[in-house]
Design goal:
The chain has four helices and twelve strands; from the N terminus they run E-E-H-E-E-E-E-E-E-E-E-E-E-H-H-H. By secondary structure, it is an alpha+beta fold. The chain has two domains: 28-185, Jelly Rolls (Sandwich), CATH 2.60.120; 195-225, no CATH class. The strands form three sheets. It has a five-stranded antiparallel β-sheet, with no helix packed on it. A hairpin with a 2-residue loop joins strand 1 and strand 2. The protein is globular, with a radius of gyration of 22 Å. The relative contact order is 0.14. The model is unreliable at 1-6 (pLDDT under 50). The structure holds glyoxylic acid and manganese (II) ion. Manganese (II) ion is lined by residues 117, 119, 124, 163. Residues 69-217 form the Cupin type-1 domain.
């Protein structure tokens, strides 16, 4: 049998098949790995560190390990961006350990912005519970996708892409987001670039953004740097 001029037994065809199989099985193309047991409640105080957290001894596991009440209260949105993220990741909810999922509660003051950021280890989906949010993300090809959503509407942000949510309604807003990682991580562009420790050299920022030194200083000062 031949495909695009290649015989199925030709070395090129076999090599192509091996590359496809390798790509499909490579962890780089999936989110958190699948668990190898029913659960593994994180022992956040374990003295050793692994890719995730070691499990608590099963005899110490209780019902409470599988429930989380951290989303009951609205977060305090009195801050620069008018937003508060309450993370329901493995650090707050150890029962998530090895399960490859987590959630956030996101509260917005009127006009509040969850600033442009990305999650290095997860795709994100979200649902608006209250208010009106402009949700947007930019692809690696610089294409901007966005939509204004109201209660009950859902969105998805593909893995690693820069995205934001802006409260464009009259009152406060609330959304819940979900991730295919127990610890998705967040690279928040304003603070990553202008409030790192130690600071990124000024020249990188002035050249990178084509701005003057005083603009860099002014942005840094807004973050207390
Ligand atoms: C929203 O973008 C979130 O990361 O929870
Ligand atoms: Mn996000």
């Amino acid at each position: 049998m031949a495909f695009m001029g290649l015989s199925i037994s030709s070395p090129s065809y076999l090599l192509f098949g091996m590359v496809v199989l390798w790509l499909l099985s490579s962890p780089a193309f999936s989110a958190d790995p699948d668990p190898l047991q029913d659960f593994c409640v994180a022992d956040l105080n374990a003295p050793i560190s692994v890719n995730g957290f070691p499990c608590k001894p099963i005899t110490n596991v209780t019902s409470d390990d599988f429930f989380f009440d951290g989303f009951i209260k609205a977060g305090n949105t009195t801050n620069t961006f008018g937003v508060n993220l309450t993370a329901g990741n493995v650090l707050a909810f150890p029962g998530l350990n090895t399960l490859g999922i987590s959630m956030n509660r996101v509260d917005f003051a009127p006009g509040g912005l969850n600033p442009p950021h990305s999650h290095p280890r997860a795709s994100e989906s979200g649902v608006v519970i209250e208010g009106k949010l402009l949700v947007g993300f930019v692809t690696t090809g610089n294409v901007f996708f966005s939509k204004v959503l109201t209660a009950g509407q859902m969105f998805v942000i593909p893995n690693g892409l820069v995205h934001f949510q802006l409260n464009v309604g009259k009152g406060k807003a609330l959304a819940f987001t979900a991730f295919n990682s127990q610890l998705p991580g967040a690279v928040v562009l304003p603070s990553t670039l202008f409030a790192s420790s130690p600071s990124i050299p000024d020249e990188v920022l002035t050249k990178g953004f084509q701005i003057d030194d005083d603009v860099v200083k002014s942005i840094r000062s807004k973050f207390g740097f």
